[in-house]
Design brief:
Elements lengths: L12 E6 L3 H13 L5 E4 L40 H22 L10 E3 L2 E6 L1 H14 L9 E3 L2 H7 L1 H4 L8 E6 L3 E3 L1 H12 L5 E4 L2 E8 L5 E7 L5 E11 L5 H8 L8 E12 L2 H6 L3 E3 L13 E7 L2 E11 L12 H5 L5 H9 L2 H11 L3 H9 L10 E5 L3 E8 L3 E5 L2 E5 L5 E6 L7 H12 L1 H4 L2 H10 L11 H15 L5
Parallel strand pairs: 1-2, 1-11, 2-8, 4-13, 11-20
Antiparallel strand pairs: 3-7, 4-6, 5-6, 9-10, 10-11, 12-15, 12-16, 12-17, 13-14, 14-15, 17-18, 19-20
C-alpha cells in the first residue's frame, strides 16, 4: 500500500475500519482483494455486524436502482422530469451487482439466495396530476437503456394483475397509473454484510472486534492515526496506531469525524430522522402481495419517507411492510444516546445547522406531526395503498435512525442534503461516510470513489487496475450510454446471483 503519503513511525495496523456495516464490509473486502498482505482491524460497538442501518428491519431492503423511487426523479418548475440522479443510481446498483457476483464466483460469500431475490419494483399513483407526472417520468426514463424494460399502464385491470391488494376496494373509475420493472430486487443487506465479514475475519492479518467502542482518534506528528478503543465487556482500554482510518459508523460517523479535527470535516452537521414501519402479521395478506410498490411522498416529507408497500425476504421468510413513518429523535443511532445531537453541535457547524433548520421549518413541522400520529392516522395512510387494510393485521415496528447531512453553503449558510457524502483528509489518511439512502445499494461505487481519493497512487498501478476490472468488468465505462454492454452485464450478473429468469 503506497497511499498518497509515505508514513514514518511505528504502526500497529495498516487499516482500521470503524463500524461493522455494509460500508466497512465492502471497503474491507475490496482492500483485501486488491492488497492481500494488508492488515485490517474492524471495531464495532454492538455485539453483531450490521445491527444498525444495514439491518433488514431497520432501513435497508430495497435494491435501490431508481426503478420505482419517485424522489430520484423530481419534476422541475418547467414541468420536465429530471432523471440524472436516477440514471446514476441505476448504474451504481449494476456496479454493486457485479461486485457481489465476483464474490459469489470466488466463493467469498455463500448462496446469493441468502441476500438477494428478484421482486418487481412498481411506482403507483392516483389522481390526474400524479398520473401526468408518472407518464412524463416514464417517457423521460425511456431515453436511457437502463430503464428500457419498464412497463407503464393506466389500466386498472393491469395494475390489479400486477398487485391485486392495491386495487381491491378502490373506487371504480379512479384515475390511476403504475410502472413496473421485473428486474427489481430485494436485498437483505444485513445477511450480505455478515456474510462478507465472516469471510473477511478468516483472512490473514484481519481482526474483527465486537463490543468495542472508539473513544477518541487523533493524528500523530508522524501523520499516522492513534485510536483509543474501549472493550465494553471488560472495560479494558487500549491504543491502536494505523496508517489509514475509515469511519463507517452510520449515525455515529459525525461525532468521530469531529474528533479527528481535520479541516475538511469542519462545518458538517447532522439532522437525525427516526422511522417506524407497519409490519403485517396476517400470513394470508403477506402471500397475496409480491412487489415493492412506491408512491409519492407527502408535501413537506423528507425524500427517504416515500411511502411504500414493501415485500421483503427476511431470514428466509416473506414479510410485508408499509411505511416508513418518519419521526424525530436526537439519537444518531438506534442504539445511541439522546445527547448525540446536542453533543454534535460545535462552534464550526452551529451556523450551518441553524441556517438549515430555518430553511426546513416545513420538514420540522412534518416530523412533529408524524410523531403525534395515532394508530388510526397510520392506518389511514396505509389505506391509501391498501384500501381494505384493517388495524388488527398490522403491528408497529421501529426502524433505524438516519442522520442527514448538513453542510456549509455560501449563499444559505447551511443546507440539508439527502444522500451520502464522503469526507476525506487531503492526504488520504482518513475518510468518513455521512448521510443515508441510497447508501447500501450503492456501497460499492461509494467505496470506489473513496479509493480514488485515499489510495490514488495504488489505484493507478496496473495491478490494482487489473484486479478492479476483474471484480467489476464495466469499471470506467458508462452503462447508461451502452445498451449492449448493459444487457450483457445484467444477463451475466442475473445468472450468477440467481435472479430474474435465470
Amino acid at each position: 500500500m503506497t497511499n498518497k503519503k509515505k508514513t514514518v513511525g511505528k504502526t500497529d495496523v495498516d487499516v482500521i475500519l470503524i463500524g461493522a456495516g455494509i460500508m466497512s464490509a465492502t471497503l474491507g473486502v475490496l482492500l483485501k482483494q486488491l492488497e492481500p498482505d494488508l492488515s485490517i482491524e474492524i471495531y464495532e460497538r454492538l455485539d453483531i455486524a450490521a445491527a444498525e442501518s444495514s439491518d433488514a428491519w431497520n432501513n435497508a431492503g430495497t435494491g435501490h436502482s431508481a426503478f420505482c423511487e419517485l424522489n430520484y426523479t423530481p419534476e422541475k418548475k418547467d414541468g420536465t422530469v429530471e432523471i440524472n440522479k436516477a440514471v446514476q443510481i441505476a448504474e451504481h446498483f449494476e456496479v454493486s451487482k457485479q461486485f457481489w457476483s465476483y464474490l459469489v464466483e470466488k466463493k467469498l460469500i455463500s448462496d446469493p439466495k441468502n441476500f438477494i431475490r428478484e421482486i418487481p419494483h412498481m411506482s403507483f399513483v392516483w389522481g390526474k396530476k400524479n398520473v401526468d407526472f408518472l407518464k412524463k417520468r416514464y417517457d423521460a426514463l425511456q431515453e436511457c437503456n437502463l430503464f428500457s424494460d419498464m412497463q407503464y399502464t393506466e389500466d386498472s385491470e393491469i395494475v390489479k394483475n400486477w398487485a391485486p391488494l392495491i386495487m381491491d376496494g378502490r373506487k371504480k373509475g379512479e384515475k390511476v397509473a403504475a410502472t413496473k420493472m421485473d428486474l427489481g430486487t430485494d436485498v437483505n443487506f444485513g445477511s450480505l454484510t455478515r456474510d462478507m465479514f465472516n469471510n473477511l475475519k478468516d483472512q490473514p492479518n484481519v481482526g474483527l472486534h465486537f463490543n468495542h467502542e472508539i473513544r477518541d482518534l487523533k493524528r500523530n506528528k508522524d501523520e499516522n492515526w492513534s485510536i483509543k478503543v474501549k472493550d465494553l465487556e471488560t472495560g479494558d482500554k487500549r491504543k491502536r496506531v494505523a496508517k489509514f482510518v475509515f469511519i463507517g459508523a452510520g449515525g455515529g460517523s459525525l461525532p468521530l469525524l469531529e474528533k479527528s479535527d481535520i479541516p475538511e470535516g469542519k462545518g458538517f452537521g447532522g439532522f437525525p430522522v427516526s422511522g417506524q414501519w407497519l409490519k403485517c402479521n396476517n400470513e394470508e395478506i403477506i402471500a397475496q402481495h409480491h412487489a415493492k410498490v412506491y408512491g409519492k411522498a407527502a408535501v413537506g416529507a423528507p425524500p427517504m419517507s416515500v411511502p411504500h408497500l414493501d415485500t421483503r425476504m427476511i431470514n428466509g421468510k416473506q414479510a410485508l411492510l408499509f411505511g416508513p413513518y418518519a419521526g424525530f429523535s436526537t439519537k444518531f443511532l438506534k442504539n445511541g444516546s439522546f445527547l448525540d445531537l446536542p453533543k454534535s453541535i460545535k462552534f464550526n457547524n452551529i451556523r450551518p445547522m441553524l441556517s438549515a433548520g430555518l430553511h426546513n421549518l416545513d420538514l420540522t413541522k412534518y416530523l412533529i406531526d408524524q410523531v403525534r400520529q395515532s394508530p388510526e392516522d397510520r392506518l389511514a395512510a396505509l389505506k391509501e395503498y391498501l384500501p381494505k387494510a384493517e388495524l388488527k393485521d398490522w403491528e408497529l415496528e421501529n426502524a433505524g435512525q438516519r442522520v442527514q447531512v448538513i453542510k456549509k453553503d455560501a449563499k444559505q449558510g447551511g443546507v440539508l442534503e439527502f444522500g451520502t457524502e464522503v469526507v476525506s483528509a487531503s492526504d488520504g489518511s482518513i475518510a468518513a461516510l455521512l448521510g443515508a439512502s441510497p447508501g447500501a445499494s450503492t456501497a460499492v461505487s461509494i467505496m470506489l470513489d473513496l479509493l480514488s481519493r485515499c489510495f490514488a497512487a495504488d489505484l493507478a498501478t496496473p495491478e490494482w487496475q487489473a484486479k478492479i476490472k476483474e471484480m467489476i468488468p464495466t469499471y470506467g465505462k458508462e452503462l447508461a450510454k451502452n445498451g449492449e454492454l448493459s444487457k450483457e452485464t445484467r444477463n451475466r450478473t442475473s445468472k450468477i446471483l440467481k435472479i430474474g429468469n435465470q
